[in-house]
Write a structure and sequence with these properties.
By secondary structure, this protein is of the alpha+beta class. Among the domains are: about 15-170, no CATH class; about 170-215, no CATH class; about 245-305, 2-Layer Sandwich (Dna Ligase, domain 1); about 490-730, UDP-N-acetylmuramoyl-L-alanine:D-glutamate ligase. The strands form six sheets. An eleven-stranded mixed beta sheet has the order 23-22-21-24-20-25-26-27-28-29-30, with helices on both faces. Strands 17-14-13-18-19 form a five-stranded antiparallel beta sheet. α3 (about 85-100) crosses α4 (about 130-150), α6 (about 170-185) packs across α16 and α17 crosses α24. About 45% of the residues are buried.
Amino acid sequence: MDLGDTSMNPKDIIFRDIISLRGPSIWTYPPVLEIWIDIGELEDLPSDKIPGLYERLTAWLPALVDHRCSYDEHGGFLRRLQEGTWAGHILEHVVLELMTQAGLPDGFGRTRQTTTRGVYKLVVSNFHEGVTRLALDLGRNLLLAAIDNRPFDVTDTIDTLRRKVDRKYLGPSTAAIVGAADDRKIPAIRLLEDGNLVQLGYGAAMRRIWTAETDRTSAIAETISRDKDLTKELISSVGVPVPEGREVDDADDAIDAAEDIGFPVCVKPTDGNHGRGVFIDLSNREEVAKAYAIAVDEGSGVLVERSIPGIEHRLLVVGGKLVAANRSDLITVTGDGTSTVLQLIDSQVNTDPRRGTTELHPLSIIRIDTAARIELERQGLTGDSVPDPGREVLIQRNANHAFDCTDEVHPETAEQAALAARVVGLDIAGVDLVCEDISRPLGPQGGAVVEVNAGPSLLMHIKPGIGQPRPVGQAIVNNLFAAGESGRVPLVGVTGTYGRNTVAKLVARLLYLSAQYVGLACSDGIFLGRRQVQKSDAANWEGGRRLLLNRAVEAAVIENGAEVILGQGLPYDRCAVGIVTNIVPGDEHLERWDVQPTGSEYYTTPRSIYRSQVDVVLPSGHAVLNAEDDLVASFAELCDGEVIFFACDAANPVLAAHLAAGKRGVTVVDNRIVLRTGSDETRLCRLVNAPYVGKTRSPKKIANLLAGVAAGWALGLGKEVLTTGVKTFGLALPDPASVLSQRAQPAPAAGKPAAVRK
């Protein structure tokens, strides 16, 4: 942090540094921004000494009453505001509230003093860095206006931030799937900063989604679904009812087709979407010609089909099963004798609070588009017409699939929808059908499936206008990951002052010997199997994340130093094994982070740094801890999983007490590595057979060896693998890539036979 320039205006808040912590850190598990703020003379002006501040903030942001703060009670933050708190803490809550008002989930926040007067660490959730930075700027402007008693447009501020959220944050369909994955503790990685491409899981266990499509969604199936005529042909061949019709070449052909089929008919693009260019219940040649002229511009071809009586329904099929259903509705207005059709739409329809222009609204704003104009023309009206009092005017047919009817769907209809999706080949499909009564079979009532869509919107099922929300995200996640699957590969995180690199390489060696394709990110670079693919330092967030994005990686080992935890965050959310080798505060150079040897929670300490590696151990996982380092040993109480201690001294009291409780530890007895569970023990090879230790028998090297063996034991590796790993670690083994390149070289030409040599 550079505090050289301390010049600031009176009552100002300056952002001295912004650190993006993209994974678990000393603060929390999800990504956060850590902002070092300088509040200047506001250090002498807590909130209770600023007249009117409480009243202005509560008037501008009344929902601050929901912030519980340190009192952990409703209105807790407002209580702190009345009692007196400082600008940094107030800014934290203002920023969080602005993000909530803009449509983001409830976030995390902390504000802590540094050892420099007036300088604080402000930490807030980072759902998207561009959004969070904007919220910080807007929040500072709002707070300073409240402090100075200046006017401030809160509505415009929230609208500005909401527009940013709409552009940058996950869409509702993707967010629902990611949320369902989180409920199952499956990690999620957003692969595009501004898009909806998301990876669920790590390495070889991953799956990927893009909105409501997955890496199981066939490109062929998607192409078929866009061709409505081909889709009809395929699904009708297996008995799914479809409307009679054909593709047409021009307007005259469309009229001929309509007359052959018989009015009323439907005209639509062969490969359109979102209902654009779709016209139904056309009853004469002129309407067909008009509809064709519009539909032809919305796709690569035009279909003319028999118009199916009834209401359009959208059935969501996931993994061959119906999981949700929605019906559309007619949009009508009633004349009052004075208002135009446009005015009636605004006063009778668009005033519904469920309607809006954002994805937060389940219903859209109704406009008079081309289809609506044709519908009005049928009734002899335009948007400027004034209908007679009591006259019902139809504006749109089949508008807004927002009315849940999942529980009403007839089993036979559900099966036909699932069959249609299966025949097209889609793992997730939105099946559109038209019928008068969804609770009856399609055939007897003349209903039919009209479309099968890939990548269907989930919003209508997540937030229906009327009816029960459906767990569609959960259905998709459960289709991608079977029961018991976590989307995780064995992942080992290694931290500590010394020995991290060695221990990480040893664990990787052990996993390699167990026939797993292992990725290693450490200070020596990145290794895949025995092949080095990066030679620069990879003991950082980027290096670790590269492994987790690699679909070939079956196990991962990642080295993390204190600077990674403080300045980047861990590259993974949880791990199977977390190793802490040792902590030597005096040998760390962490002044940039304002690290203090000891102190309360308000200060960064070695304990608060290195405990992060233990905090992320899965409940089914293990922490491997140095019993001979008191600070490291104290982390045992923080671990959600099992603890395995290691110690060079078999008589170490921490290890002894641990073993006495029937737990596991690794030590040395008679110069032999020993695995102990309570009083039971398994002996591995002697230290003399460990090339890495050598003749010096350095305690540090022995400790590193024990840590690696303990991690391998935690991962379930057998005695033979552990022994082989110890006996070969430290030997210079050939790089497979170099061996292969040597084999690829042509053999030298054979010399002349001895008999003909001169």
